[in-house]
Amino acid sequence: MPSMRVATWNVNSLAARLPRVLDWIRRHDPDILLLQETKCSDQAFPTAAFAELGYFSAHHGEGRWNGVAIVSRQTPAEIATGLAVPAPSGMAEARYLDASCDGMRVASVYVPNGREVGHPYFDYKLRWMAAMRERLLDNQAGGHPLLLIGGDFNVAPSDRDVYDPAAFAGATHVSQPERDALDAILATGLQDLAGRDSSQPGFTFWDYRQGFFRRGLGMRIDFLLAAPALAARLDRVWVDREERGGMRPSDHAPLVAELT
DNA sequence: ATGGCTAAGATGCTTAGA
Fold it and tell me: Can you give the distance from the CA of residue A21 to the C1' of nucleotide B13 in angstroms?
């Protein structure tokens, strides 16, 4: 298999971010770009703009909130959406999309925020993560062992994945049930591609408010997870912090992995 | 650090993010 560049990026509205996303693709030439929080309907998804750059795309959207996409050089096949976990509102939200691409089973995921520990949406978050784990097991059992999952997991796996653990006491994203749910997903046989690099914080999200980015107050909540056979090919993994700066950035930066 | 930011739908506000 030739070398590959894969990336995941929560764009916080694709309509608001499209010029930046297209420019990023031109400059970095990814083979696969996984997007979250597109916040657009399937009808409004800019398929043609990606096609002009030579990319296919698959999108699962609902309109105002959520929305996930796979943008790739190779045609995504066997496109499937999910998960069928109703939110407390009763709606099944557009947070999961997987497809076969480049000989892998690729998923773009946007885990629910959870709002507050103990809130009905917190329970939904945990149920959603459990359902995602089942989906990954189904993919493996269905002859798709080469899993690559990218997305916004809304969980910081350890205290060093937030700028100040004390600031997160009692908060979502750091609670034990959330971390256990993430561990259970990894335990299906996946490796956190950025997890082995302890040379820098590896933050992928910085709040818009109060100059958090400028002050280095971030969180590592976006991940690229890969089956061992893929993870063994990892050459380099990096966060494109440059994309968190400039005009009208997303509050998340792209996480990029180069596979040999 | 219980949020002095951002985005979007229908607005001069609300909901949501994390």
Answer: 30
**Protein-contacted bases of chain B (C-beta within 7 A):** 1-9, 16-18
User: Which of A148, A167, A165, A174 has the alpha carbon at shortest distance from A234?
Assistant: A148
Q: What is the CA radius of gyration of chain A?
A: 17
Q: Does strand B come within 7 Å of the CB of A221? A: yes
| A226 contacts A190 by C-beta, under 8 angstroms | yes
pLDDT tens sequence across A148-190: 999 999 999 999 999 999 999 999 999 999 999 999 999 999 9
A72 CB-to-strand B distance under 7 Å: no
Strand B: which residues 137-196 of A lie within 7 A (CB)? Answer: 152, 154, 164, 167, 170-173
pLDDT of residue A1: 66
Residues 6+ apart with CB under 8 A from A244: A206, A213, A250, A251, A252, A253
Give me the helices (H) in chain A, please.
Answer: 14-28, 47-52, 120-141, 176-186, 228-231
CATH topology of domain A4-259: Deoxyribonuclease I; Chain A (3.60.10)
Of all protein residues, which has its CA closest to the C1' atom of B16?
Answer: A65
Domain locations in chain A as residue ranges:
4-259
Angle between helices A120-141 and A176-186 (to 10 degrees): 10
A35 close to A42: Cβ distance less than 8 angstroms: no
Give bridge partners of residue A184 from the DSSP assignment.
none
